[in-house]
Each structure stands twice: as structure tokens, then as C-alpha cells.
Amino acid sequence: MPNKKRLLVLDTNVLMHDPTAIFRFQEHDIYLPMVVLEELDNGKKGTSEVARNVRQVTRFLNDLIEHHNEELEHGLPLNTLAHTQVECSGRLFFQTQMFEDILPSNLPGNKPDNSILNTAMVQQKLHAERVTLVSKDINLRIKAHALGIHAEDYFNDKVLDDVDLLYSGLLQLEDNFWETHSNNLESWQDQKHTYYKVQGNDVSGWYPNQCIYSEGKNGFVGIVKECGNDWATFQLARDYYNHHHSVWGITARNREQNFALNLLLNPDIDFVSLVGIAGSGKTLMALAAGLSQTLDEQRYREIIVTRVTVPIGDDIGFLPGTEEEKMTPWMGALMDNLEVLNPVSNMSGEWGRAATADLLHTRIKIRSLNFMRGRTFLNRYIILDEAQNLTSKQMKTLITRAGPGTKIVCLGNIGQIDTPYLSETTSGLTYVVDRFKPWAYSGHITLQRGERSRLADFATEAL
């Protein structure tokens, strides 16, 4: 498309996904078909995140109309609402008249989508190459292209251009790193930890709590503690490969798992994100670290485990029982990992197994995401599983629930996203990994290898 002021016809799902979307197109004009307003009206009821977004959109539209007495045919300037904090100089137009149906008579599809396509075609005839249809619906964009209408996805919520650019939390040092930095190297010990400080341009791109390592006979594994423009301080990572240093009977099977346990067991880190393929040990390590710090060290009062019930935000169903019992069908992964951490032994007898199960039940609480809004958690260890299915706004809502002494662990596989209109580059998990990397009290690691079984590893590679 030529680089000039455009008229953007918005689909309903764009506004449902991001209620501030009408302010995100800078100098370009926005056009809202009447069917979009009808769909917004139908989706405003309920307590889901989508319903909240719809209500916010309608409030924005109402504020724009109240700030201007101009006729809607001339459009409303979008730069009048100071609280949006976004620079935009375009105008907002509403469909104020019915258009003749100019779509092919045999065009399949539902009426709302076809109505939006018809509106876009009419505007395209009126404004030539200025018109662009913006939609999160891939099929609608394909139909638009088939009809000769220029269509695009909504890119404003895109965190990265390519998922390969996502921060991994892991950095391999050059083979000659120690030789080139030996003159500016300091080392000391404090509370049984060994620390190093290096200077040079090579460390300018490091982040706090980044995991660093070197290969070879002088192999090194460490975690960055502090860093500046041309200096960094890091400490030796603790070895969790050894059974003497196991965490609730769990030991690290590879370098990434060892780094993950270091981050999970560090009391100075408030937020940890673990991204990895199925079977890489995310849930098992997070749960083992939580049990160790809750039951053994008594650092936290209890463990709260929650995960996304797709579709997120809808009622979790008319299942009988309490909130925890309703969430049980979604918590199969938790139960599977508890069986690993608390193996059933014939030596303990029925009473011993029941006592252990009751102890775990009193310290591990299962909660639904639907009831997190407005809550504050003090001294809790919160595990947020399947976080790749959350949007950036939902992730913000959940993380801001943390009170003093609380640690949040986000787990997910960005290659398995089930939520509509989310992708690897727009997922809330990708968003927090990218935004938290410079913060001194957060840590991230991407787990590369599956350790579930040789069958699962082969299936991951071959299927």
C-alpha cells in the first residue's frame, strides 16, 4: 500500500482483542461498520475479559461522541481523549447509512463477515486505494483478498517480529572469554557463594539473572547478579545434578534445568518464567521448588496453582462442587507431577499415604483465573501454568495480584497456543519474557530438551 493516509475498516475482533485499537493507527482514519457496533452490543454482557474489553470500547466511543457536537458523517477527531496517552491524529467514522449489497451472490460465509466485506468494498469504490480491512480473522482476510480488498492483521500487540528473537535467558561465553578478560577479573566469596566481576564491552548486552556458561575443560556455569554499561557481576550456579542437592527428590538432567532450579530457589527473584517444549520439566521443577520452600523452608504460606481454562474468562461450567473441584479436570498435569514428587510406597501404609496427601492438600490450592481480579496474595508461591494462552492484558491483571513476599512462576510452551487470535509473537507469555528481562528481580530460561521419556522425545522430533 502507498505510504499515505488510509481509511481502516475495523473488524469486531480487533476491538475485542484490544479496546484501545482505535487509537493505535497514528494519522490514519478509522471506519466502524454498523454490524461491528451490533456485535459489540451483543458481547458486552458477562465477566469475561472479552466482555470487559467490549465495555471499555463502548466507553471510549461514548466519550468521543460526548466531546464533539459535530455530525458523525464528518468523523470525530481521535486526539481529544487525553487519558489514552497515545498520539493519533486521524478521525473516527461510523457507518450512518445502509449500502447496496455489491458482493457476489454466491459468496459463502456468515452475515456479519459478509456485511463487513460489503462495507469495505463500498468504501474502496469511494476512496480507491486508501481502504484497508483490519481483522484478526485469517479466513476473513483471505476472503477479502479474493474480492480484491486489501486486508491486514492487527500488528500493534506484536511483541517481536520473529519468535526466534525471544530472549532465552541463556548465553554461551566465547571460548577465549577468560583469556581476554583475565586482566579485569575480580573474585571473592560471600556466604558460601563465589562471585566474579568482569569489565569490557562484551558484557554490555547482559541482563540481570541471565544464565551464562562456557564449554570445554574449564566449563563454567554462572548467573549474572548485577550489570552496567561495561561491567557485570555474576556468581557460580549451584549444582543440582547431585542427589545430595536434590529438590524434593528431583535433580537436574541438563544445563537448562539446573539454571531453572537456581532461579526458582532464589529468594531474591520475585518472578520466574520458564518456556519449553512438552516434557521439559517446567511444571515438575516449579512444583518441587515450591514444595521445598513452602514445607521445608517455610518461606511461603502456601502454593497456588492455576492455569488457563480455554476459552479463557468464560464460566468454568456447571460442574458440581467448589471452585477447586471445578478446576480439577484442568489440573491433570498437577496431579501427575504430584505423583512423581510423592511416590506411593507400600512401606508407608495407608495411614502414611493419607497423611502425606492431606498435608499436600492443605498447602497446595487450586484456583481459577476467573476469580483473580481484585485479589492480593501475600507470601504465596503462585504457579501460572499454560501461560501462553493469555493475552498481555490478562497477564498484567494476574501479575499485579502479587503482594509482599509473593513469587510468581509462569510456565508455558509458545508452540502450543490454543486461544483464538493469539500467536507466538503476541502471546502474553512472550510479552512478559521480553518486558521483564531487564528487571533485577526476575529470571527467565528457555528449556530446550524434553526429559519425559525416549518415546516422547522421538515423537517430538518425528511427528
How would you describe this structure in keywords?
6-stranded mixed sheet, 463 residues, elongated, Rossmann fold, single chain, Ribosomal Protein L25, Chain P, 3 domains, alpha/beta
Can you walk me through this structure?
This protein has 463 residues and is α/β, with parallel strands linked by helices. It has three domains: 7-152, 3-Layer(aba) Sandwich (Rossmann fold); 164-236, Ribosomal Protein L25, Chain P (Beta Barrel); 260-462, 3-Layer(aba) Sandwich (Rossmann fold), CATH 3.40.50. The protein has 14 helices and 18 strands. A hairpin with a 5-residue loop joins strand 10 (211-214) and strand 11. It starts with 6 loop residues before the first strand and ends with a helix. The relative contact order is 0.11.
Shape assignment: elongated
Kindly identify the CATH topology of the largest domain: Rossmann fold
Number of domains: 3
Which class best fits the helix and strand makeup?
A: alpha/beta
Helical stretch tally: 14
How confident is the prediction overall: mean pLDDT?
85
Rg, rounded, reads 26 Å
Q: From the structure provided, what is the oligomeric state, counting identical versus distinct chains? A: single chain
Number of strands: 18
Question: Spatial order of the strands in the main sheet?
Answer: 3-4-2-1-5-6
Strand content: 15-25%
Helix content: 25-40%
CATH class descriptor of the largest domain: Alpha Beta
Distance between the termini: 40 Å
List low-confidence stretches. none
The CATH superfamily of the largest domain appears as: P-loop containing nucleotide triphosphate hydrolases
Corresponding CATH architecture of the largest domain: 3-Layer(aba) Sandwich
The biggest beta sheet is recorded as:
6 strands, mixed
